[in-house]
Amino acid sequence: MILGRRERENWRRRFRVWLFPRRNYSRSFRYYWKRMLRIKATPHAIAAGVAAGAFASFTPFMGLHFILAFVLAWLMAGNMIAAALGTAVGNPLTFPAIWAATHGTGSAILGMTEGDHTQIKLGSMFHHGAILDIWDPILKPMLVGGVPLGLVCGTILYILTRAAVSAFQHRRRTHFESRQPVAENPEVEA
What we know:
Blueprint (H helix, E strand, L loop, with lengths): L10 H9 L5 H13 L5 H15 L7 H11 L4 H7 L8 H16 L11 H7 L6 H45 L11
């Protein structure tokens, strides 16, 4: 391989680079932002896709965020690639805050008090196959709290993304139109 490494990195180093990029997070954010702006679709489709992905990130169903984002984007006539990029709202840095906020909001909406929370031993539940026992104390409040928080985040991102994509596409269109040579009309004499 021409551009391959001489020595393959071990799993610890790959994990560290995945968690803390070599450059910085702002460079990664700018990369994904420019990728999203350059998608060839209408501003509504791109913004709806990003909003669907952001909403999906607020649900507690970790392995299903892409699928849920694609379904929501399809229902809103959004772009699927933008939906996939929108799920980046939920990442290893933001998930702890999202989970705490959704659980707290859901507990408040459901009227759960501190006494309603019992000590949960997830390891023994997974070992004994009692995964459904975490529905009431964990998943139900996170799902109920994730809906309003996801709607707020999705709405804000929809507005910001639609405005940014509209401005970017307008600037790009006028730039390309200004570079076009003016076609001479033989019928009109100056």
